[in-house]
Amino acid sequence: MSRIAGVSVREAGPLLRAMYWFAKRRFGAVPEPFTVLAHHRKLMMAAAKHELGAERASRVLPANIRELAVYRVAQRLGCSWCVDFGTMLQRLDGLDIERLKHIDDYAASDAYSADERLAIAYADAMTANPVAVTDEQVAELTAAFGKKGVIELTYQIALENQRARMNSALGITEQGFTSGDACRVPTP
Asked: Is 94 left (phi over 0), alpha (psi -120 to 50) or beta?
């Protein structure tokens, strides 16, 4: 249970109920971070607009590159909710989630392409404290993905750092999106 309980449907006003309905329809359940953020309506609205906008704008990179980098951030920061939800999103996108078990060995694993390795290493470098990104790394990424691709990758990694740190600070843990029978999100 999170450190701050989420706003329940019974406590929600009409706008929040509509937002919960949309989230449940899209994901099969209302994401707990959403219910916790609902305590601050203006930030919740800003976050919802931002998430939808970032999702719609992020179309330069292949989904596997973007999602692996985001997953790696969640895993490195220990955000179990983000790992759970991110795994579900990858599964729904038709990506191979079995290989996520081997992400710690990505540099030597045949399960990852050269481009995927670049993106995962970049996620590691951006998530390190202090940030450990090098000029050479950005040059390699630019050669592989172009400037727009590097900007998108950087943005998505930074955004996941924000999500994972916020969820961890608030004690939000896995919700059961990918835990076998507990998974409430149907396969398309």
From this structure: left
